[in-house]
Amino acid sequence: MSQDNDSIDVRVFDLAYGESYQPAKWPPREAFSVFRSRDYAAIRALATHPRIFPQISDDYTADPAKWDVPRSEQVIYLLASDGDGPFGFGIFVPQTHVQFAAHMAFLPRSYGAIALASFKTMLAWMWANTTALRLVGEIRRDNTLAIRFARRAGFEIYGVNKKSFLRGGQLIDQVCLGISRP
What we know:
The protein is an alpha+beta fold. Helix content is 21%, strand content 36%. The protein has a domain at 12-133: Aminopeptidase (3-Layer(aba) Sandwich).
């Protein structure tokens, strides 16, 4: 990765297929990479991290020891990593030929510009390497940090899925967000 005074070049690697994508320069000064991966152990370790798992689990997946990564050849798994190892992931599940459900999570050590740049790099990878024209997601209404983060990445709120997430025996609304290919 090359570095200049204000930004770095971020390279996205598709390890499964040997493809690469070079997006525009991002503002963060720290180097990171985003790559396609089937390293289910790394994705599981991130998803079950004590700061992530409580945000993504419901009453039916309350035990991180029993949770595992959904595995499918159709699902696209992207990892974000730096010199200290993986710090985030994106899981993109096809709903139709042109629409994928996006599931993202980042460790607190990457919060801020690095996580946002990683998220945007994952979006750029999806636009460049798939048939996706639309990415959508649902976030619990009470997870305002995640909603704000998705909106900063360009997602727009398009609705509310009422009483669709079971947490602590209570049904919680989820905010529906989406972004279309630029």
